[in-house]
Design a protein that fits this description.
Helix content is 15%, strand content 25%. It is an alpha+beta fold.
């Protein structure tokens, strides 16, 4: 009796093995549960492309290099302002502000540095300034020049005394508005009015000492 049971068990095992082999050969799914698939990675949210930055160049000298003499006080009274070009103007620009300042000295231990030149309400359609911008509080294109350290509404070039170089900084601001200020406005007036309207900015640095 016991021998018959063993033979029956062996027959059943052989039958199962045969069925499994047949299923594998004929593509029939096996009874073994499939391994769960890994969860799909979440789709990345699309991002709007960033606008290109405002770019400025001064063709007369490289950024971070020495300022040529003709643009400095050493060339007075023949000194001229350098040519300035800019591109990639932000959408919505209505006007520009150009500032040349010397960040090293702080007269009377104050927070302000030295203003050498500032033009505001440059038309938003402009792509630069020519070499030798003339003096005057109001220019033909409607822009205005601030009275700087020299005491006149005109360009005054780098003029650091003998010693270490000063880092003269040309700064360009693109604004989403035209500034409603009198032509006698100061640098502080312009910067206060421009606050909250800056769409883009660019910087160029020139080194100089006498």
């Amino acid at each position: 009796m016991r021998g018959k049971k063993l033979l029956l068990a062996s027959a059943l095992l052989c039958g199962f093995a045969g069925v499994a082999a047949f299923a594998q050969q004929n593509g029939t799914p096996s009874a073994t549960p499939a391994t769960p698939a890994a969860p799909a990675a979440p789709a990345q949210q699309g991002r709007a492309p960033q606008a290109p930055p405002l770019l400025m160049t001064l063709p007369g000298f490289a950024d971070g290099s020495a300022v040529p003499t003709k643009f400095t006080c050493s060339a007075q009274p023949q000194a001229v302002s350098p040519e300035i070009r800019w591109s990639q103007t932000p959408t919505g620009t209505q006007s520009f502000v150009m500032l040349l300042h010397d960040p090293e000295p702080h007269p009377q231990r104050g927070i302000n540095d030295v203003t050498h030149w500032m033009i505001w309400n440059i038309p938003g359609t402009a792509a630069g300034l020519p070499e030798g911008v003339p003096a005057g509080a109001t220019l033909p294109d409607g822009s205005h020049q601030v009275v700087g350290i020299r005491g006149s509404a005109s360009y005054f070039g780098p003029c650091a005394p003998p010693g270490p170089n000063h880092h003269y900084t040309w700064e360009l601001l693109a604004l989403d508005t035209k500034l409603d200020l009198p032509e006698t406005a100061t640098r502080d007036d312009v910067m206060k009015a421009a606050n909250g309207h800056v769409l883009g900015a660019a910087v160029w640095i020139g080194l100089f000492h006498r």
